[in-house]
Each structure stands twice: as C-alpha cells, then as structure tokens.
Amino acid sequence: EIQMNLSVCVQLWHSWRRCSTAQTETLDRVSMLLQLCVDRYYVSPGQTNVELFQRGLCCNYGPLGMELRRNLLDQWWHSVTKSRAQVFGINTLSGSRETAALGQGQLRIVEYEHLKQSVEQKELNKEQLIQEVHMLLQRSPSTRTNLLQGALEQFVPSLELVNRKLPFGLAETGLCFQPSEGSGCSAEVTQTSLVWFCSPRTSSQWLDHWTRQRLKWWRKFALSPSSFSSSEVQQEELEEAASRGVRIIYDFPWGQEIVETLWSRGDAELLSIHKGARSKLQCRDGRKSVPHVVSITANMDRGVMAFLSNSLQQLKREDSKQKLHQRKVLKLHPVLAPIKVALNISRGATVELRQVCEGLLQEFLEAKISVWPGYLETLPTSMEQLNAKYDEMGVLFTIVIGENTLESGLLQVRNRDTTIKETMHISEIKNFLFRYISATDNI
Amino acid sequence: EIQMNLSVCVQLWHSWRRCSTAQTETLDRVSMLLQLCVDRYYVSPGQTNVELFQRGLCCNYGPLGMELRRNLLDQWWHSVTKSRAQVFGINTLSGSRETAALGQGQLRIVEYEHLKQSVEQKELNKEQLIQEVHMLLQRSPSTRTNLLQGALEQFVPSLELVNRKLPFGLAETGLCFQPSEGSGCSAEVTQTSLVWFCSPRTSSQWLDHWTRQRLKWWRKFALSPSSFSSSEVQQEELEEAASRGVRIIYDFPWGQEIVETLWSRGDAELLSIHKGARSKLQCRDGRKSVPHVVSITANMDRGVMAFLSNSLQQLKREDSKQKLHQRKVLKLHPVLAPIKVALNISRGATVELRQVCEGLLQEFLEAKISVWPGYLETLPTSMEQLNAKYDEMGVLFTIVIGENTLESGLLQVRNRDTTIKETMHISEIKNFLFRYISATDNI
Fold first, then answer.
1. Collapsing DSSP states into helix, strand and coil, what is residue A415?
2. Which among B59, B137, B378 has CB closest to A93?
3. What is its main location (chains A, B) (predicted)?
4. Each residue of A242-269: pLDDT tens digit?
C-alpha cells in the first residue's frame, strides 16, 4: 500500500492537470524538494539517480548528501554503542558462500567471462548446459540482503567476549542488496543493524525498550518530531520466526514509509544457523537457555530522505521594495547539517582577506568543523543571493569577513534559523560554533 | 612476485621441518600474530576467514578489528579532506549498469531464480539458450572493482561546485569486489580513493605531492616507520592510460605487499567516460584544457593487517622469581588503538565499586573514548593475567578501582607502553586521556 502511494504520486506528477489542488501542492512540494537536493549537491543529477533517492535506496550522493548520511550513521553508531557497555561493533562480509539459510541467496555474484565460457563449450548438449549453469550459480557467492545473518553467525565467538552473559548486542552498518522479484533490477540500501541477544522471558520487554530508544532517536533530529511514529505489526503480517514486530514510520508528503523495523524473533534462526548445537549457544542465565533475538534494522538512505524532507521550510517574506519572496531553508539539525559554516569575503577580495579566510579554514578543519570555502568562488553574487543559496544548502552559519576584520578583528556571523546577524571577534568564533553544536546535541 | 612470496610462505608453513631457522622464525611470528588477532577479537575465527585477512582482503572482523579499521578510515578521511579546501566527499553505487568502459564489468549480480527460470524454459533450443544467458548477463549490473570510475562519472556535476576551477579532488571510501581470474572466488576489499583533477602540466608535481603526503600518513601511525616505503613503477609495468605510477609498500614478515598505488593517468579515461565531450570537461585554467587525473587508491584491509603486524612487540622479561616471561604487546598508535581504556575492579566487587565503574564508563562513552568494561567479567583472573591480555589487545590504559577509590577518589592507571602505574584522582582521568591521545595525534 505504501509503495502504491508513491507510484501513484509519480504517475500524477506527469499528468499534472488531472490532480486536485491538495495533490498538486504535494507534488509541487516533492518536486521542489528533489530539485533542491540536486541543485544543492545532496544528490547527483540524472532521473534514474533521483528516482533511486526518492524510493529510499542508495544512490550517487553529492558531497552534501554524502556528509549528511555520514553524520547520520555516526549518530546512530554513537547512540547504539554508547547506550550500554554490552554493545559490540562487528563487520561481516557482504558476499557469502554459506547461503540458503534464512531464505538468503537470491542475488549471486558471478564472473562474466567464466560463465560465458562455460556456456559456450562446444561439447555440451542442452541438458549438460543447463546442468553447468546450475552448478556455477550454486557455487557463486550470494550477496547479503540484510545484516542479520552475519550477526547470527558471529554469535558464538562473541559469547566468549561477554563470558556467556546476557544480554548483549552486535552492531553493524553496511550495504545490503535488495532483489526485485523478477525485474532483474536489484538495488542497494545502507542498513544499520543492532542484533540483541537476551533471555527468552525478557525479549518482549527489550523490544519495547529498543522501540522507545529508536523512536526517540529519530525524533531528536526532526524539525517536526510527530512525523515519526511507531506501530505494532499485525499478527497476520508477522515474519515466520517472529513473535512480535514494530515499525517506525515516517510521514512523507506522498504517504507513509518504513524507516526502521524491530522484530522479536525467538531462537529458531539462531539454532538453524548453528545447526541446532544447543550446548554451543547456551548462556549463563541460570536456566542454560538459548537466547532470543531482537533485531533492529533501519534503512539510512531513506533516513537521509526523511530528514531532508522534514527539514525543508518554505517561508514567505516581503523585501524592502514590498516584493514577495519565497525563502527555502533546509533546517537540518545542527549535528546532521553537512556544512556548519560558510566563509565569505564581503567585497574586494584582497590578498590579506583571503589569507584571513585560509587561516580560519584551517582552524575549522582541524577542529573537525565542516566548512564551505565560499571565498574561493569567482562568480560575483550579492550577499542576498549567497544567503539564499546557503539556506537551501542547510549551512548553519555564514561568516563574512571584510576590510573591517583586518583592522578590528571583528566579523559578521549570520544564523540560518534566526537570520540574525551578529558581530563577533575572530578569536571567539571557533568556540562559539563548538558550543552551539554541542548544546543542540545534548538537548 | 609479491604474491609468490606469500604463497610460498603459506606452503612452507605446512611443511615446517624443511625451513631454515630464519624462515621458521618468520613463520612463528606470522602464526603468532594471526593467532593473537583471533584470540583478541580482531578477526573472527575460522581458517578461511583468517586466510582472507592475511591476504589483505576484507574478512569477518571482531569488535576490535572493526574499530581499528573504523579509526583508520576516519584518519584517512580527515587527513584527505582536511588537507585542502578543494577535496569533496562523494558516494557512488557499488553496482552499475554502465559497464564496459575501463574494462569494468567482470563481476555481475544476477538474480538466481530469474536466471534459473530462463534457462529452464522448455521451448528454447541450445543456441537460443546461450543467447538468453548472454542477454541476461549483459543486462545485469556489474559490481565495481575500484572507486575510480564512479569519481570520473561524478566529474561533471562536481565541476559546477568548484566553478570550473582546478585543481580539486573527489574522495570516497567503500567496498570493491575483486574478480579472481577464473577461480570463481571473488573477494571484497575496503578501498579509499582520492581522484585528483589538475591541469596537464602540473600532474607530475601533484603525483609527487600526494606520494609525500600519503607516505607521511602511513608512517605517522607506524611503530617502525621505515617498514613503509615508496617506489616508482617501472616503465614496462605502467597501466595503459598512465604516464607515471608510484606504489607505497609495506614490509610484511613474508615479504613486500602494496598498500597504496598512485597513478598519473592523463585524460583518456575521463574523455572516454564522457564520450569525448571536451566542452563539458574543460576548465578555466586559461587554456581551456581537459584536466589530467591523478588517482590515489589504498587497500585499508591490508592497512589494518600492516599496522597490526607493525605494532606487535615481543618483550622478554624476568619476573621476581627469575622466571623468563614473554610479553606480547600490540603497540598500536593511540589514535588507532580500538580500546583506549579498560575499567577494572581490584578485588571484592562490591555494589559501590561497580557503581563507580558505571559512572566512569558513561563519562568515557559520552566523551567518545572507547572503553572496555573489564569490571563486568565474572571469571576470576589475577591483575598480571589481565594486564597481559590487555597488552595483547593493545589497550592504551588500564584503570583499577579499589576500596581506596571510595575513600580518597584515587585510582591506579597503567600505561601500556611504559607499564608504569600512576595514581590519579578520578576527576582528572578523562582530561588526562583526552590530552594524551590529542598530543600523539599532533606529532
């Protein structure tokens, strides 16, 4: 149903006139958002690429999109591993030869020349040919569709790490591949996964605990937190092994989409992967039970799309000549914003002013504050045009350095969200930015 | 020749007795290193997995290996994007439908069921069958073998970003897939890539610049920096498009292996990918030239292996009873060490002592100092055994909290590299660690 909404929306887009006003507004908003993402270096141009992006799949990201996703993944990592001492990061392979278990193995990596040559062997008859192709496919590694199986495989070596004590979790982020049911057009998704091992009687409580944590996390970075919600999966929709499931959903302009799914999965998959070797899997919780698994899986490509969609504000304002302007601002959360500060020269780019900029740039880079070197741009633009551009990029602060700075050390700092311009001494700016970003991180 | 050395070494391993003393020592050292990596949670157990690791390929990493690679990738990212304002991060897809160019496309992702069904169609004769398999293969996306092509494709949208001004660079890290010439056994590698676009007359200078930078970077984190060296690629070994090449090499116990390669590649590939559309590619450097490409590509899985190998020290020492002990220490650079500090209780784990540990743990986690919750371990071990274990894990500092801490706030801090134990107040410890790690970062 969710996918329906989206494809309906895309169709409507191309048949503009038939839409109702409400629908038209939605489409306007969606197409404006996508155009902005391309224009402002979040997503690389090209229709196919933009479609991948809108569908919540991995696409070619521009520098800002890449940095936004990087920040999002860092925040996820920090939040999950910081939350408790018993969460450990792992890294598993994306291609695996041990397939079949858990219904994996739909996508195979084959060597083009190798398969071609095998098929072209003159001596084979049709039956042998089919046989040969089968064998080659079966031997080829399959690409993972999720991170769960890797974590389940790593359960035994991890048990030693925690002295067989429950609960504990294995965290991983990485690329997964989605088969597309026959169309032959597979897709990539950046997933985050926490696989939580706990005693059977606590698994439902842990599912609730992680649902609360994760929903809080998504809402923390949202401009309108209520766009994120959670809903219990209905009995008839439950995956085979699961006893309960919860979805975290984001309200896109075109309808709801799932950003994260939590399952209480029991012990069946763990037992199946380790071929029923109960004694290897038992933990020291008094009853020697095989732990239950709670899996928490998010799609961070769709997460990027959700936060971009959530943070775009359109504001109408009159200028001094009473002309109506529409201002678009990407009000991304300060810790997510890919560029924290843009550095500009007010007028007459003298050698001295450029040197001041270079110095500040280095200072910011060393403090790991991402900075946009606006002073390098050679096209003349008014400060108003620049601010409009930076607002669309979601740049938190814009610094303007002028003749005045050389004399007094003072510079102008504009805040994206308030549009207020402050005068500040050049020696204070780094700490000011640092404090501002940390303060928003701890709310 | 380099691969030869390794396989010879592996063979020798299994025929122990035929080796010379020097060779036996090498093999001892290698097998000890690999065993330590498995025992101390760097690499997951299993012979196949350990072999991948030793061959410099991506493998299943344990929590410590995962964190080490993460730290290494972070350092690379920071060093490359911090070095100049004109380096931008991108993210490209790992599967691509636009193949063939640059000799890509050896590995294809096919849908198992889809291909199987196509082959099993009753009506096809042998010729049609071969035709069908060909078509399916050709339509399947290919997985990337390097990050170069993605960056070359992103050149045009990036040009706008820099106002057509040279030089600039596109940085990316990600998984690549290596075909294995017929064996059907493809492998994964974590690559870092900086693709640098510059004017034709400066490309050789830039190659030298980046070689210096990169060699300095590798050496910065090494215990014995001279194990990393660079060497110019001989004329007869140059890749087709390249005019010059440099390799950065690490001296493993079994011989030399390449960790990074820099090529001065000219403009042929850029022109070929953009179908010769010179006008789209020209930059504003006075002569309207198509830029030349310098590619800088490292294998970070081999990087992990190199730094582990480089940092392992065996020290002999006598204990108080004049018994000879062999101490193994993983002296990883402080910024790379996956665990900065281990938290332990000296004796009698009372509720109060555990609470002190929990408090410190939270403080460290929030400050993003990675910490090992040793106080959760339930198996009784002597402090000596614990220190030996932490040394093998490469843990920088070990904190011991005792009854004394509750009264005076004092705790004991042991330094991995000096083995010296200091007494410190609990309120000072976080800043002490912070300063220590930052200081080593800025040398």
1. strand
2. B59
3. mitochondrion
4. 889 999 999 999 999 999 999 999 999 9
